[in-house]
Amino acid sequence: MALDRLDLSLAADIADLANQGRAKAPERVINGYIPASGSQGPRYTLEGRPGAFLRMNSNSYLSLSHHPALLHAADEAARIFGAGPGAVRFIDGTAIPHTALEARIAAFVDRPAAKAFNSAYTTVLGTAIALSGPDTCWIGDALNHNCIIRAMRIANIPSERRAVFAHNDPADLARCLEAVPEGVGRVIVIFDGIFSMRGDAAPLQDLLRITAAHDHRFRDGVITMMDDSHGIGAYGVTGRGTEEHAGARVDIFIGTFGKAFGVNGGFVAGSPTLIEAVRQKADTYIYTNPLGAADAAAAVAAINIADSDEGRARLAHLAARTRQFRAGLTSLGLESIPGPHPVVPLLVRSTDNVRAMVQGLFERGILAVGLTFPVVPKGDETIRFQINAAHTEADIADALDTLKALAE
């Protein structure tokens, strides 16, 4: 059969990935959740593995996914609207929780309009499709997330109208803008707010200063688009993300409900005209099912919590635990990239040592992610830790004690 021959070719592809160090490890399966007790935060159990684990590899920065308000909202919406939407948004797949979510997230990020997608990944792709035209040029940061890289390709922009500037380097962005070819009417500069592998933030004020200096050169100006999926809800005094931290504002704001808000889905926020253009033109919105009503309702509940005294208390606790962990790494003489974000990279700078330390953490009940070449450049091999609001002071102390033992 033809599939037998295809399987042989695919097996060779998989072996090649393994030889390059790019193959994914077998997926661990979480089969249980143990609520916080005493001085210890929540733990998780894994299929086929004894004991319980502290997750330090979760994007759920505010630890809201088990919050009773979210579970109640999801349950009520599912009872009314069903477990799935049954159709795309244009074919009566839109329910009250969808429009409520769009209004709520638009208000949270201080924009007049927003549109929800089934993921932040499809949000970036769809927005790129909607905004790209025959005279559009895209410029992106060198360490942008894969969704942005794919967006710049899927939008059918020829290579001469795509450029990459050195990571967080405003001067190199200026060089790229100066090199934009004649005939371009619209330039879009796109970047992450928080870079997920490093936890560092885009230098927003400096980037916007550069884009403003070139705005007059193009018919539609220089449009700034930021994917702040790791920032929104987890960063800034009130959790408004990189904009709040930097004291600056981009033209188009993209984010997720699947990280700090603890649910699922993505969104783009901006002017009403922009959002209508996305609704009309974004393939990844038009031709695929939206979030279920339960997800949308739970996301509204999550934003309401984030925008409350309880949410700010969680954010403050998250910041305190992040400072504790970062200070602990410093006291142990371990290298990191400084910053206040709860993504905390431990720079190990050796593939073998990363693998050994990640395995050592696992054997001691701690889940963390090792990043080696080609995911990161050679010499930048890293273990990424992600602090959550449910982590306790004792949890962080235990993790630091474990790292001390492994480092020794």
Can I get a quick summary?
The chain is an alpha/beta fold and 408 residues long. The protein contains 14 helices and 15 strands.
Count of β-strands: 15
Mean pLDDT: 95
Low-confidence stretches: none
- Shape designation: globular
CATH hierarchy: architecture of the largest domain: 3-Layer(aba) Sandwich
Question: What is the CATH class name of the largest domain?
Answer: Alpha Beta
CATH superfamily annotation of the largest domain? Type I PLP-dependent aspartate aminotransferase-like (Major domain)
The overall number of domains is 2
Structural class: alpha/beta
**Going across the major beta sheet, what is the strand order?**
4-10-9-8-7-5-6
Order of helices and strands: HEEEHHEHEHEHEHEHEEHHHHEEHEEEH
The count of helical stretches stands at: 14
Instruction: Provide the gyration radius in Å.
Output: 22 Å
For the sheet with most strands, the description reads: 7 strands, mixed
